[in-house]
Design a protein that fits this description.
Blueprint (H helix, E strand, L loop, with lengths): L1 H25 L10 E2 L2 E8 L4 E8 L4 E3 L2 E10 L9 E9 L5 E10 L8 E2 L3 E9 L48
Antiparallel strand pairs: 1-5, 2-3, 2-9, 4-5, 5-6, 6-7, 8-9
């Protein structure tokens, strides 16, 4: 009886170590890691509190764009594949041009498109938040651009993440099936 118990115990340990090795290979660091897509374009919205206007603007990774007295520089912009739950994040640096023409860093950190109030830039006159990441933009890249590869040029109003138009008519307002829905 003792030998049977020891054999079962050894088999359970072996199965547990194999399962742990498989999980470690799939989930590095013990947390679920979905594939990240590095995008060349970050999309921001900015609010001018004086005029009440909200403006959406594209910024290439590493490029600095001025919005009012603020200079916005995205360093990375990640999304997930369409088959995963959406998670759009970006590491962004924002500098303020003061009245004395000095540059002062007011924000350096991660922004989450799903939670704009969590890490948006709030300024007495301007607010800026990340809304999306894209593979291409209608805005041409800067001449010295050296970020992630751009996936072509997007026509106005077109979504680069929507995938190719395969000619299948789904009707107005009816979304296409996702690849895993068959």
């Amino acid at each position: 009886m003792a030998k049977v118990f020891e054999a079962k115990k050894t088999a359970i340990r072996l199965c547990a170590s194999v399962a742990l090795a498989a999980i470690s290979a799939v989930i590095p660091g013990g947390a679920v890691q979905a594939e990240k897509i590095e995008n060349p374009v970050a999309v921001f919205s900015g609010l001018d509190k004086i005029t009440g206007r909200i403006i959406s603007f594209d910024v290439y990774i590493g490029e600095t764009v001025q919005f009012g007295a603020l200079q916005v520089t995205p360093r990375v912009c990640h999304t997930r594949p369409q088959t995963e739950s959406p998670l759009t994040t970006g590491f962004v640096q924002v500098d303020e041009i003061t009245l004395n023409n000095e540059v002062r860093r007011i924000f350096s950190g991660w922004m989450y498109a799903a939670s704009p109030g969590l890490h948006a830039v709030e300024h007495p006159v301007y607010d800026i938040w990340l809304t999306n990441c894209k593979l291409a933009s209608t805005v041409p890249p800067p001449e010295d651009y050296d970020g992630p590869p751009i996936k072509g040029v997007v026509a106005e109003g077109e979504d680069p993440l929507a995938g190719p138009d395969d000619g299948v008519e789904t009707g107005p307002g009816i979304p296409r099936k996702k690849p895993f829905q068959g």
